[in-house]
Amino acid sequence: MTVEDVLTEATVLYLQQGKGHELEFISKSESSSLGWYFWLQGVDGVYEIEKKKELRPESREFYVRYYPGKTEPVLEDYSVEEQLLRFDEEVFDDAVIHRPLEEHEVCPCCAAGHPHGRSPENCGHEMHDRHAAETGRPKGIPRLLKKFLLNKEMFLIGALCVTVNTNGAVSAEIKTKKRLVSHAKDSIRIMQEGHPVELVRKGEINRNVPGYELSRKFMEFFGPCLLGVSCQCGQNPSAGHGGIEESVDTGNEWVMIRYTNSRIKEAIL
């Protein structure tokens, strides 16, 4: 079984079991032959995995990216270039996406064919506006044509390797750092009211993203919750992580976050 088969099967099985409390939406990427977007519950931004290279038929490497929400504090840790792109409406699509409503959540006008002769937008029911806000969230991903033009390093938080072992078990690991730091090669300026304003001086830190924190949050879903449904270890994927081993101090070294048979392990490289 190939990695693509495993990921497709795991996604289908996970959705068939009900998306539970971990995932709001999932979508296959149209800009990659093998990639997905994940909208996790309680997370403002969007995770993406995109095929990087095939190491061998049973092992693939993926880029892992995190696109922060526009009001999310972590966006300030990204580079100036990434921040400007995130606020560019021509680059990012922030149209609202909605989850299907349960019967008890639907506004009476929406459920009963507008008995008051009004459209749902101005029906006057308080719950209409409330539920519209509760069930929607910004899409928050690059527009398709713009995605092809983005540098592969943009919004990157780590590298994911998924392997199908000979015994049929699935393992995954993300290589990242506690802080992903980069410095400005040149002075970064923008124009404000016709005058250049220096935002970052040459040599100063331009990017200081919490790669470990963001990657860890994704792996806690991707491993036990998603891959766990297809793993042949005889465990219930909803039964928890099966144990997490914390490293004492990752410093700023490379860190590997591993998932194997419902366990997440970390190792300093």
Give the arrangement of secondary structure elements.
Blueprint: H1 3-16, E1 23-28, E2 35-40, E3 46-56, E4 59-67, H2 80-86, E5 92-93, E6 96-98, H3 108-111, H4 126-134, E7 136-138, E8 141-142, H5 144-147, E9 156-164, E10 170-177, E11 180-183, E12 188-192, E13 195-200, E14 205-209, H6 211-226, E15 254-260, E16 263-268
Antiparallel strand pairs: 1-2, 2-3, 3-4, 4-9, 5-8, 6-7, 9-10, 10-15, 11-14, 12-13, 15-16
Brief rundown of the structure:
The protein is of the alpha+beta class.
How would you describe the overall organization of this protein?
This protein has 269 residues and is an alpha+beta fold. It has helices at 3-16, 80-86, 108-111, 126-134, 144-147, 211-226, and strands at 23-28, 35-40, 46-56, 59-67, 92-93, 96-98, 136-138, 141-142, 156-164, 170-177, 180-183, 188-192, 195-200, 205-209, 254-260, 263-268. An 8-stranded antiparallel sheet has the order 1-2-3-4-9-10-15-16, covered by helices on one side. Strand 1 and strand 2 form a beta hairpin. The chain is globular, with a radius of gyration of 21 Å. It starts with a helix and ends with a strand. Residues 113-119 and 232-250 have low confidence and may be disordered.
